[in-house]
Amino acid sequence: MPITANDPNRKTWLPLNKDTDFPIQNIPFGVFLTRDDIITVGTRIGDFAIDLGALHQLGYFKGIELTDDIFLQDTLNDFISDGQKTWRLVRNRIADIFDEKNTALKDNTSHYDRVIFTMDEVEMQLPVQVGDYTDFYSSKEHATNVGSMFRDAENALMPNWLHIPVGYHGRSSSIIPSGINVRRPNGQTLPEGAENPTFGPSKLIDFELEMAFITTDANDLGEPIPVNQAEEYIFGLVLFNDWSARDIQKWEYVPLGPFLAKNFASTISPWIVTLDALQPFKVESPNPVKELLPYLKSNGKKSYDIHLEVFITPEKSTPTKVSSSNFKYMYWNMSQQLAHHTSNGCPVKSGDMMGSGTISGPTPDSYGSMLELSWNGQKPIKLNDGTERKFINDNDTVTFLGFCQNKNVRIGFGECSTKILPAL
Ligand code: MN
Prior knowledge:
This protein is of the alpha+beta class. The chain is built from eight helices and 26 strands. The model has no long low-confidence stretch (mean pLDDT 97).
């Protein structure tokens, strides 16, 4: 089915800033609370939030097979379960409703007032109920940097790394939308040189610059997803800050891997940008260094050129950009991750979230964590206000931005922002 919503020549009758992350070619999906305290599934064009529940009740989706309450919900899980064909029909229809050539909604004041809100009138919620959350470790530069720091540069990558998209099962209960503050966690650490551990506030709070993809119901127990069909089961992506406590991590992770250092919070951008909207930005993945096993060999372009930025804003100060990276640096693409995840028959459900792992680029200004940017505290980062950071301080706000840009269109993710509060 053609994705007419992506037509780069289409213009909307809604007023837009020309550098918006949300032109009519984006049409992301999210969940928000309206000024009347009604929760609904919606989309966004420019700085307008659009109530899809109201649009559906008013008959604007006539001819598309949708249950009456599909958008009158507090999560997108059921809509995502409807599958790729329905997502495409709905995005194409939304594009038509807001096309400058079609002023039916624009000219109907009572409909307009029920459907369209400004962004400052709504409160964004978590867009899906995340059933299961998996985090990969798929940036070769990140894995190499961490391996060099904690083992040695010659053997930075573990022997499995070039053969397997390494990952672990995370916890979904602490995934939060952008804008929610997070308390510095308390935990057990072994101070440098000490014989016994102590319990208290983590001293090494770090962000991890990641993206996460959200799946639909993909497979039954026992049934793998072939690598070259995997994209059919990916609804879309969000920015993902996988908050980490490096000192807790260092002491606890042996031998079973990440635990309390990683599950106190992970922040996502609230609008899910569909994989369909990202089609103009497909690029080749890096060439595999080692011959891949057949189930991991993906054909054609399966990576995406998404520019990513990280800012730190101390209390009462201005933001400093500390990193510029790109999703295209990922060694393992989403198709390979999903094929690997299901290769043993593990079922994947609607609303499952898969983190990419920290996305570091080839140069020191493109590293995706403070651990790497400050090289484990050896090279502090200077901020605009003259202060320095090795890791994240109390009352610092960390903000991720992400967008794709070509000469026709900019498709962005908005922001993923969290303030760290002092420990309890
Ligand atoms: Mn992570």
